[in-house]
Amino acid sequence: AAAAGGPAAGMPSLPASLSQRLWGAVYTLTYRLPMEVDELGGGGGRGSVEPAGSGRSSEGEEGVRCAVEAHVLPPGTDPLLGALGAAAPPLCAESEGAGAVLKLLWFLHRLNEHWARLYSTAEVPEAQRGAPALPPAVFPNSKLNAKLMRQLQDPLALCSRSFPSWCATLVNAYPFLFSFGTRRLFLHSTAFGLSRALQRLHAHAHEASSSSASSGAESRLESRLGRLPRQKVRISRSRLLDSAVRVMELYAAQPALLEVEYFGEVGTGLGPTLEFYALVSHDLRKAELDLWYHEEQPISDEPPAAAPDSTEAPLGGAAAERARDKHEKLVHAPCGLFPRPVAQEADGSGVPKRTIQLFTFIGRLCAKAMLDGRLVDLCFAPPFYRHLLCCELGLEDLHDLSPQLFRSLHQLQALASERSRLLRAGGKPAEVAAAVASLTLHGCPVDQLGLDFTLPGFPDFELKPGGADVDVTIDNLGEYVRLVTDALLVGGVRAQLAAFRQGFSDVFLVSRLAPFTPSELDVLLNGARERWDKATVIELLKFDHGYTRSSAAISHLLDVIADLTDAQLASFLKFVTGSPRLPVGGLARLSPRLTIVQKKPESGVSPDAYLPSVMTCANYLKLPDYSSKEVMRERILTAINEGQGAFLLS
To answer: Beta strands 29-30 and 2-3: pairing type?
Structure first.
């Protein structure tokens, strides 16, 4: 920074008259961004941060592409050896003194993630196969967390974008040293633009500060400095998806906060906007779009209860009626959403243009939601997030996509590995050939399994030229397993995931997500999933206008909420807030706080005749004082199932 006409450091004290003239004038401080420094690369010097919406301006295509393209390890390759044999991330000059310790911690963290590879599959219970040996909470360093937090709360460093280079280096190369909250704050402070960074700083300071007069003045000043413009759009519910695609093309990369309204409705603000993201997420899960890898819906007399991670939480009210009227069918993806494999060339040719357009849109939608502090309802499968993080993929990743297919391929790979072992062991050719020919799957020879070189479930997807006419035998079984794994995880989804990354980076660089794990990315995009414990929830709610925490109606309400299924709780949240998910941090981070007030009936009318109503923009639930808990439960379920799909005056 340079001050025009300012005194040089170390000058003797000036006469009083000159001092008065000097400090009575106004001088302009000018800060220059060191744009030649790549912050994510962790190089020397000071880091630079690009404003939100300039996703490709500073890092070019490297911000969109992986530094190392996601690829599938050959079957039989031990991922633990690859993980531990890789070189530790480079350090900046400021961190060289601790280099040996950091590399040791990096090695131990990798070992903690892949410990199950030290044992055979039979020795590790399936529930523990993907879990770390130690909880992630043992790795963060409290002093480093505190030091980084102080840097991120320095307004001058934030405005001048002059964080020390060790901040970006350690967060991106050694993220396990920092808590999820600290890394999330770093993302907001460096990737979302200055206005949002100031807003985040203001919110953090407001939580920690006292309610003194001086702090109130500073708070108002910071609020004015970080105020965001708002971009209001009005769309039609009947053409929701097409309208959303157009809105994201026009406004996703803009710094303004997006607010959505609907034609013919009076609702405006936060509630309709949150519902917009939820409804678009619902429409993107329609099977007719052919976007996602899915399984057949299990047939049962009763609809299955939705799991916490289910991608099929039903919408209520008008949206549910539209779904029934149009016989809409959502994909059944119990492990999460992952692109449907499509036969394509290396350059992506062969994938329908509409598919590429929609995946580009999904990338923009997710990035814009994250930028604006909104939530989507798209539970992606873990391999999807590993693709974004440029991780190595392997046969084990199919367990998180299709457990049944994984088990089948795992058994086939075991036969192929046994064949390779027999050939390496040597011996008389006739004996080796007989031993290989005796290898069967549950007593059935491989060439009688009816397999050919097409992708299971996709008969038109040939794994190699003329694959439909090539039978799978014990001699080419290993090649078959390798080609199936590659087609499902990389080869058949390359163009779709590249389109997602490109769309995401139109808003801010997808490489900014590198410090997070797949499970943390799911929380950032989809919000928290938690059960509402009565003793905890009552401390997080606000009661007014006729209700207190000791009111009988409040006790009944908490009992009713505690008994809701996961799908019903999601519908309740969508009814009250506009979103079926809670923000990151759960109910404690819901803003404004969920407020329960009494809905007074008209004279001579029983409260039981009324349904609850809400103001979603204020998270404001107007609840009649029902005569019993059973009546309250029935009226709440009626409201959340029939009272959605429009924002009208109550």
So the answer is: antiparallel
How much is the average pLDDT of 96-101? 77
Say if residue 143 is exposed, middle or buried (CB neighbours under 10 Å; 0-12, 13-18, 19+).
Answer: exposed
Distance CA 414, CA 288 (A): 37
Q: What is the band of 83 on the pLDDT scale with cuts at 50, 70, 90?
A: low
User: Residue 78's pLDDT is what?
Assistant: 63
Contacts of 641 (CB under 8 A, 6+ apart): 316, 317, 320, 571
Task: Please give the mean pLDDT across all residues of the chain.
Answer: 80
Whole-angstrom distance, CA of residue 555 vs CA of residue 539:
13
Q: Which two tokens stand for residue 376?
A: 């989507």
Per-residue pLDDT tens for 268-326?
778 889 889 999 999 999 999 999 998 877 654 444 444 334 333 334 444 444 444 44
Tokens of 423: 């050939």
Tokens 């002093």 sit on residue: 143
Q: How far is CA 402 from CA 123, 378, 408, 458, 500, in A?
A: 22, 18, 10, 14, 22
Dihedral sign (CA 337, 343, 346, 347): negative
Task: Tell me what pLDDT residue 396 has.
Answer: 85
Provide the 3-class DSSP secondary structure of residue 220.
helix
Contact between 185 and 175 (Cβ < 8 Å): no
Lookup: tokens for 20: 């008065």
Please check whether residue 52 is in contact with residue 371, taking contact to mean a CB–CB distance below 8 angstroms.
Answer: yes
d(CA 585, CA 487): 37
Which runs of E-coded beta strand occur in 256-397?
Answer: 257-262
Cα distance between the two ends of the chain? 56
Average the pLDDT over each of 23-32, 60-69, 142-151 and give the range with the smallest value. Answer: 60-69
Q: Which residue has the tokens 């047939």?
A: 299
Give 154: exposed, middle or buried? Use CB within 10 Å, 0-12, 13-18, 19+.
Answer: middle
The candidate with the shortest Cα–Cα distance to 587, out of 597, 598, 576, is 576
Residue of 435, 427, 338 whose CA lies nearest to 388: 338
Rounded Cα–Cα distance for residues 102 and 90 (Å):
10
| pLDDT tens column, 514-527 | 999 999 999 999 98
Tokens of 248: 């994201």
Which residue carries 């006739």 as its tokens? 430
Q: Give the DSSP H or E segment for 319.
A: helix 317-325
Measured distance CA(327)–CA(330) in Å, rounded: 10
Catalytic residue numbers read 617
The single residue listed with the structure tokens 């999460």 is: 336
DSSP 230: E
With pLDDT > 70 as the criterion, what percentage of the chain qualifies?
76
- Rounded distance, CA 433 to CA 472, Å? 17
C-alpha 175/C-alpha 181 separation (Å) is 11
Record the pTM: 0.80
Q: What is the C-alpha separation between 425 and 439, in angstroms, rounded?
A: 16
Side-chain-side CA neighbours of 3 within 13 Å: the count stands at 10
Query: What is the spatial distance between Cα 170 and Cα 176, in angstroms, rounded to a whole number?
Result: 9
* Burial category of 286 from C-beta neighbours within 10 Å (exposed 0-12, middle 13-18, buried 19 and up): middle
The CA distances from residue 242 to 130, 286, 358, in Å, are 39, 14, 10
